[in-house]
Amino acid sequence: MSVIIIGEAATKILEQFSELTRHHPEIPWHSMRGMRNRIAHGYLDINLDVVWETVQSAFPVLVNQLHQIQAREKDPEQPSL
Fold it and tell me: Considering the entire predicted model, what is its pTM?
């Protein structure tokens, strides 16, 4: 369910904050939306190994990237990604 929620958030950001997505192409906005759509609508055609690999490897990187963006928003002197 968390993957779906993250994908929903990415979709909202893509739709409502396109400037943010353009300034941070390192974040896989479209991939997050795509995975959400696949899980939400794929039903029996979901590769759980891919989902698990994403949760294990991509999510920690994503969380780190988002924390860095947040820190730079609070303090523009923070180094870039």
Answer: 0.81
